[in-house]
Amino acid sequence: MNRMKLKSLFIANALLLGAGFMANAQAETNTQSGNAALIKQGEYVARLGDCGACHTVAGKPAFAGGLAINSNLGTIYSTNITPDKDHGIGGYTEAQFSDAVRKGVLPDGTRLYPAMPYPDYAKINDEDMHALYVYFMQGVKPSAEQPPETDLSFPFSQRWGMRFWNWAFASDKPFQPIGGASVQVNRGAYLVESLGHCGSCHTPRGFGMNEKALDSSDSDFLAGGSLNNWDVPSLRGVAHWNEQEIVDYLGKGRNDKAAVGGEMTSVVENSTAHMTDDDLKAIAAYIKFLGGNPPVPAEDTQKASATEAKLTAAKNLSEGERLYLDNCGACHFVTGKGAPGVFPQLDQATIVNAKDPTGLIHTILAGAQQPSTARAPSTLAMPGFANRLTDEEAAQLSTFIRQGWGNNAPAVTAKDVSEVRKTLTK
Questions:
Q1: Domain that includes residue 394, residue range
Q2: What pLDDT sits at residue 3?
Q3: Is 198 annotated as ligand-binding?
Q4: Could you tell me the pTM of the whole model?
Q5: Among 23, 203, 218, 249, which residue's Cβ finds the most Cβ atoms within 10 Å?
Q6: So where does heme c 1 get bound (predicted)?
Q7: What whole-number distance in Å separates Cα of residue 353 and Cα of residue 299?
Q8: 240: annotated binding-site residue?
Q9: Was 328 annotated as part of a binding site?
């Protein structure tokens, strides 16, 4: 009996040890699986926040910083946000990481400039912030890259002054859902107002270079602005596009009427092209929900037809009309309508009718290239004409485009073109 009891006791202990081992192994597997899910979620949140656009430089490790950001204060360089403990954020606790992202305050008390859009990121919820932290600590490869130090002139070099700027212009209020709006609209509102930080470009700036509004409760929010002299259109309602056209523009970088250019090229390439269909539709629904833009005026068909007829006849052309046929007509056609989903239309286009012609002039001189995205892999490019057109010729061409068909914008001068030409990268 004693031997039988000992044998039974040994077997029981072995079973208990085995069960404990299996439980521990299962717990470890569950933890790893949970971390993998969090890392994946955090990677998607980083895409929503477009972190890579500012913190990754071509030819350098991902998120290693060093991008030169031109501002009215001077040049600001993005920081290394890899988990390297000496050069990046590897030593940050989650609370310190959250303070840097939401409040613009580093662990040592250094205050960030709002080129880092922390006034918008303040609305990121705790779940997304946790996933973002796990991703950067466990899903990003550490890099010892040391970006250049930001060194602005006095008084902007005094970062302690940002404490007062934050007090006057920033907010620590969490995201507030819109009462009475649908779940889809509120998802879009959350994405636009927080991670998407769309207001940092599309909301007008105040005297302190602050966003005049941080959410949809103020009519200034997303009402349009200016970035490096490019007119940034209002997103309130986008009366000239339907929801699907908004989805296509963000997801593909093009729709049947327009193609991305300027800073939006990077936004699409690094962020919105990676969003789910549901999130793109939510953003479109929110933008349409906002309203506020005046309805698109009825097309002046008589004027548009007159332009088309004159270009078709190709007789008694002005200098601008001749230049259009020689350089632009093959893709944008005598109708100015382009080819849906391929070549953007010029008739009634926002960039064409902008108060400031910088965007149009820059596109004519430097050209443009649509990004390759999963939804639209083909890369379509427009050549630049800086070496082909003089300042006067580019001005005449721009003026024709801004005043042909249904367009009605002020003329462009050779001086306008000269100023834009000086900004081109050689």
A1: 301-423
A2: 55
A3: yes
A4: 0.87
A5: 203
A6: 51, 54-55
A7: 14
A8: no
A9: yes
